[in-house]
């Protein structure tokens, strides 16, 4: 049986997703055979990890990972941030697991799932079986993602985000909202810089980004403490 791995490191996501538009049966038949990869899955035809932002969305729906992070006052001391996370347009596979780093996650809970035969928490992971079309999975947890720098600033790290199949990286969308209203933090800047395919917006004490890309995406939110 084919097994899909979705690994999350703290608030970061590593998505090892199956190929676009291939059914579970087609993928399993290919894995069991000695046939070469179909041309559209060949590493000669796909991104090999370099980050490329997409100037327009793919014609077909791709895996969309959306997170809402809330930085609490206590987060400034212990680094733990509240996380709510949803995955839509999941690839159709027989089995998958979402794996978190043991030291960066706690109180992991499945909130809802649709068009997935079964989903359950197992240690620092979420196990999924028989993912169907229009599948949706939502989680909540605490993630240790905020770090206090030596100069008194703070950095919220996320990533790398990726949708990976074999050695190729395929298009995906990642959206994130970060709410820091409970603190006296002030946003300094976001990395990468805003550009086509990576839109950043700030409203009051909330900063968001929406990214369409191939390859590996890492993001950083840099904050100062108190008035600028």
What portion of residues belong to β-strands? over 45%
Query: In angstroms, what is the radius of gyration?
Result: 18 Å
N/C terminus separation = 55 Å
Give the proportion of residues in helices.
under 10%
Q: Quick one: overall form?
A: globular
Q: Main beta sheet, described?
A: 11 strands, mixed
Write a structural description:
By secondary structure, this protein is mainly β. It has one domain. Helices cover 6% and strands 56% of the residues. The chain has two helices and 17 strands. Strands 1, 2, 3, 4, 5, 6, 7, 8, 13, 15 and 16 form an eleven-stranded mixed beta sheet that branches. A four-stranded antiparallel beta sheet has the order 9-10-17-14. Mean pLDDT is 82; it is low at 1-25 and 27-45.
Concise overview:
With 228 residues, the protein is mainly β. Helices cover 6% and strands 56% of the residues.
Main traits of this protein?
228 residues; mainly beta; 11-stranded mixed β-sheet; 4-stranded antiparallel β-sheet; 17 strands; 56% strand
What is this structure's SSE topology?
Elements (H helix, E strand, L loop, with lengths): L3 E6 L2 E5 L7 H9 L19 E2 L10 E7 L4 H4 L1 E9 L6 E6 L4 E18 L2 E20 L1 E3 L5 E8 L2 E2 L2 E2 L2 E8 L5 E7 L6 E6 L2 E9 L2 E9 L3
């Amino acid at each position: 049986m084919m097994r899909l791995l979705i690994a999350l490191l703290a608030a970061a996501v590593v998505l090892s997703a199956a190929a676009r538009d291939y059914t579970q049966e087609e993928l399993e038949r290919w894995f069991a055979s000695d046939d070469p990869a179909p041309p559209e899955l060949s590493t000669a035809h796909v991104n090999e990890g370099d980050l490329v932002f997409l100037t327009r969305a793919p014609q077909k729906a791709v895996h969309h990972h959306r997170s809402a992070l809330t930085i609490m006052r206590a987060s400034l001391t212990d680094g733990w941030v509240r996380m709510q996370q949803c995955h839509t347009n999941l690839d159709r596979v027989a089995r998958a697991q979402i794996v978190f780093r043991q030291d960066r996650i706690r109180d992991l809970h499945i909130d809802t799932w649709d068009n997935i035969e079964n989903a359950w928490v197992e240690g620092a992971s979420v196990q999924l079986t028989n993912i169907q079309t229009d599948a949706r999975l939502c989680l909540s947890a605490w993630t240790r993602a905020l770090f206090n720098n030596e100069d008194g600033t703070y950095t919220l790290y996320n990533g790398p985000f990726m949708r990976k199949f074999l050695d190729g990286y395929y298009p995906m969308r990642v959206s994130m909202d970060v709410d820091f209203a409970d603190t006296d933090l002030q946003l300094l800047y976001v990395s990468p810089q805003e550009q086509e395919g990576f839109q950043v917006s700030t409203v009051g004490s909330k900063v968001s980004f929406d990214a369409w890309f191939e390859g590996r995406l890492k993001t950083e939110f840099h904050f100062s403490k108190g008035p600028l």
